[in-house]
Design brief:
The protein is α/β, with parallel strands linked by helices. The protein is built from nine helices and six strands, in the order βαααααβαβαβαββα. Strands 3-2-1-4-5-6 form a six-stranded parallel beta sheet. Strand 4, helix 8 and strand 5 form a beta-alpha-beta unit. The two termini are 19 Å apart.
Length: 215
């Protein structure tokens, strides 16, 4: 099984969107909640490029991406929490001998900062933005993770919160469970759940066996 990080396992997506919103406000740019949601799951560099397209005057996308990351990481202390059921689900899957991987569009520095607030030591593999040429919605991160785990993507269940992440996992040939409290389901998902409270090995197995194999 493979898990996204921000918004799927921990509520860091909220901190990220707060920073994006503050940057847009500084620009005097008004965006709708739907437009702001478009920043969910984006890598720092992709978010920076989007902000430049909306009028940001920073010198470069890479400099803006670094700034956004630093400000967001600085806001983590004492703020990050597990998504409901996440810690318990990961511990259960480990006890059942199921190999699990973390696949994120965030950098290794971001993951290390999250790990200072919640324990991320349960994963067999970790794939970050630093490990691939293209981040989500490209399938490359998920394909890399399945290779590292030596599993067929079609036999792999992915947990994602954002549409960007869902698109990446589907393109890789994986089945996807979307984790969203608002139940706003993206195209291509196998299931949509509000949190990870119900996630167990038998539940996942029944989900995989109850849907047709992907073409």
């Amino acid at each position: 099984m493979l898990f996204d990080l921000d918004g799927t396992l921990v509520d860091s997506e909220r901190a990220w969107l707060d920073v994006i919103s503050a940057h847009l406000a500084h620009l005097g740019t008004t965006v709708s909640s739907a437009q702001l949601a478009g920043f969910e799951g984006l890598s720092g560099i992709d978010a920076a490029r989007a902000l430049i397209g909306l009028g940001s005057t920073r010198a470069s996308a890479s400099a803006l991406a670094a700034e956004l990351e630093l400000v967001t990481i600085d806001s983590f202390a004492g703020r990050l929490e597990w998504v409901a059921g996440a810690e318990e689900a990961l511990a259960h899957l480990r006890r059942e001998g199921i190999r699990i991987g973390l696949v994120t569009s965030s950098t290794r520095a971001w993951v290390d900062a999250v790990a200072e607030n919640v324990s991320l030591g349960v994963f067999d593999v970790v794939v970050t933005a630093d490990d691939v040429r293209r981040t989500k919605p490209s399938p490359e991160p998920y394909l890399r993770a399945t290779r590292l785990l030596d599993v067929d993507p079609a036999a792999c269940l992915v947990f994602e919160d954002s549409e960007v992440g869902v698109r990446a996992a589907v393109a890789a040939g994986c089945r996807v469970v979307q984790v969203r409290a608002d139940r706003r389901e993206a195209s291509g998902t196998t299931a949509c759940i509000p949190d990870l409270l119900a996630v167990t090995a038998p539940w996942a197995a029944s989900l995989m066996s109850s849907v047709p194999a992907l073409p």
